Amino acid sequence: MDIERIIQCIKQGDEILFNCLFFFSCPQNLAIVLMRFIRTGVKCRLLRVSLHTLRILSRDKKILGPLVTDQALLTLAKLAGLTTGDASDEASDPDSDFYDNIIASLTEAKVLQCPADEEASDQYEDVQFYELRLMFLITALRPELSNQLQREGGVSLLTAALENCLEVQWKDHNEYVLDPAAPPISLDASQRIIEILKILFSITYSTHRQEPSDDDAAIYRHLVATLRLCLMRKCVFHTVNLLSALPLQCLDVLLTVPLEPSSEQCQGVNMDCVKTLLMFMERRLESGDKVKEKLTPVLNLLTESCRAHRETRHYIRKHILPPLRDVSQRPEEGNTVKNRLIRLMTHLDTDLKHCAADLIFVLCKENVRRFVKYTGYGNAAGLLATKGLLGGQGPRTSSSGPWYSSDSDSDTEEYRQVRDRINPVTGRVEAEQPNPMEGMTEEEKEEEARRLIMLFNKLSRSVTQPVGVDSEGKLVPVLGLRGNSLTEEGKSESESDNDAGEN
Questions:
Q1: Largest CB tally within 10 Å, which of 217, 242, 286, 319?
Q2: Domain ranges of the chain
Q3: Per residue in 31-56, pLDDT tens?
Q4: How far is CA 375 from the centre of its chain?
């Protein structure tokens, strides 16, 4: 392929050749040609067409080679105004700080400012969207740059950008004016909000278990206050992911909001955000598509919130675990939120089933008896085994764990009437089984008893012997293991023990 000849034809405005090249050329060769053409610095209408063509070609991962070289990236960055100088000179330097320059460029104040002219503003917002998307990719792929952005005030900067997209009107530092008649968020603003939330997640996801300083806590609380508006304006999915990554003690801002006449409340605390999260979780439970990715963040967020805030736990428990009245069905049967969550407790995905079980366990104040009462022992066994609670211990009382009040979980009258007939394994009232001895004579009963004794004796003699792993990785009887090897002496001891048992 004569690349130089093709480029000369394009410069001369031979659009027919360009179109033929697009439709009939090998995509990888076309990418090479277009990059060479763009580097010639020709300013013409075909430059825009070339860039659009490259954008389409970049969706095919098989032909990304010509587009991800240092020289190609620097050329595109220069055209986008993200860097200055001669691309060829910068590319020749193996230690180029190209990515650092992009971070510095993207975090300038221009990210937060929009031109007054309407047409220019629309163009700027389009450019801003791609700047934000590029910033997300860089912070996601380069952890050291993500940390740098966080250290250099990235959270405050991006919070301000988020406020700008939401057009927040603040009453005070962490309380805003919510206008019920406000128009819905535009598509362009919504796209930029999503990218900002993704970047914030990239630079804060490691802070969840950390104890922030007073200054950082103030920054995170202001961010949470802005995220509360995201929840109220229905930007829920990425907001939930970000909330689950922030320090837990900073999430109290979601609740410390004055009550309005239409507010959801529990014990005098505003529950509007909690209601939004509950409704979001219910929609995800009903969708049945990509359950783990869609449900795990919101389940974890609700669980941690219930551990930390008594009012949140009371409110969510009222909606998920109402007092038991009808126990004629298994706990996992039905279409209520409780039924769906209990079904997830036996899901094949370990992370998902533990998230669902942990939420219900916390709603039961981590009390084993109460947990089994609502879910049935069969569904509860997995989580109890993981936590070492199969023995049936009561609620957690360690100083490191959450503190729960001692209010009782009083049973309903309907539950008390059938409590003694509930099968603890299935969690429901089972149909009465006929007496197997009914209609048998005394002699037949004695004969059946002798048969059962013989079966028990046979079972005790043929019980499976404990095994271990020898030096070759094979399963062998424990009695034959001597220094990780099976000796003939061990075999004879094992065989003599078996013979003695049979005699």
A1: 242
A2: 3-96, 109-386, 475-503
A3: 777 777 777 766 666 677 777 777 77
A4: 24
